[in-house]
Amino acid sequence: MTTRAGFVALIGEPNAGKSTLTNLMVGAKVSIVTHKVQTTRARIRGVALEGDAQIVFVDTPGLFRPRRRLDRAMVAAAWGGAADADVVVLMVEAHRGITEGVERILEGLADIGKGRKVALAINKIDMVKSEVLLGLSKELNDRYPFAETFMISAEKGHGAKDLKKWLAQQLPEGPWLYPEDQIADLPLRMIAAEMTREKLTLRLHQELPYQLTVETESWEERKDGSARVDQVIYVARDGHKGIVLGKRGETIKAVSKAAREELEEFLGRKVHLFLQVKVRPNWLEEAERYSEMGLDFRDGN
């Protein structure tokens, strides 16, 4: 039996649906999904199987115009993920079309796309009429020689099977890169931290944009099969601490409960989750925080 294995990088603007597609392809939630932009920080890899092929998805941060060190490190990670991949998939939102951000990505692809196949996936196809889709597809293909174009809805699953099948056929022949039962190469501590950060992001909406990060400080396996997980939520200012805690601690309690339940479902066993909030004014400038997120601090220069 000939097996295939390789890396597929999903690139696009923030909120283009990359995380949703990764989770759909893998069949499990490995990548944080919220309605806020720029929520994916590290290059999360989800592992999907298709026939005799193992597809390793690199879910890159959304490509946008960077302003701060964290932004610059995220954009560098996104292009780095594309440059390391066997196949690249550009995701474009059907209803937004060719935005300024998509223009910049097309320019970047002129360098990164050399020597590798690049596919186009037009997402959220249920939001526009078919003639708009065809026009957008033609315009994008006139701008860049995509190997293949797919019309998909990552949320509803439309077109995803065809894309997965095609990706599997493009990967180089070789042994699988991960054990069959492994779906993500992120350590559990980081997955747990991402889950808590997602719940915070959903709960707080616009109140705390990106001025917080979550780290799993300790993970203790207990004799009864459960796990005790201690996490620290770092915020940049004193005022933010109160927002995260909420009135009479209601916000942190709700976040803790939601994150614990999701982690228990993910692990299939009981979890005791303990959250602490600490103020660290300069966490955005600390190299250690970046390596925790799987980013390179130097890329932010």
CATH fold descriptor of the largest domain: Rossmann fold
Helix content range of the residues, please? 25-40%
Average pLDDT reading? 80
- Uncertain ranges: 32-42
Describe this structure in words.
With 301 residues, the protein is α/β, with parallel strands linked by helices. The protein folds into 2 domains: 4-170, Rossmann fold; 188-300, 2-Layer Sandwich (GMP Synthetase, Chain A, domain 3). It contains 9 helices and 9 strands. The protein has helices at 18-26, 69-84, 100-112, 130-143, 160-170, 188-204, 238-245, 250-267, 287-292; strands at 4-12, 44-50, 53-59, 87-93, 117-123, 148-151, 212-221, 227-235, 271-279. It has a 6-stranded mixed β-sheet, with helices on both faces. Strand 2 and strand 3 (53-59) form a beta hairpin. 40% of the residues are buried.
Question: What's the short version?
Answer:
This protein is globular. It has 9 helices and 9 strands. It folds into 2 domains: 4-170, P-loop containing nucleotide triphosphate hydrolases (Rossmann fold, 3-Layer(aba) Sandwich); 188-300, K homology (KH) domain (GMP Synthetase, Chain A, domain 3).
Tags for this entry?
2 domains, 301 residues, 37% helix, Rossmann fold, six-stranded mixed sheet, alpha/beta
Chart the SSEs and their pairings.
Elements (H helix, E strand, L loop, with lengths): L3 E9 L5 H9 L17 E7 L2 E7 L9 H16 L2 E7 L6 H13 L4 E7 L6 H14 L4 E4 L8 H11 L17 H17 L7 E10 L5 E9 L2 H8 L4 H18 L3 E9 L7 H6 L9
Helix pairs in contact: 6-8
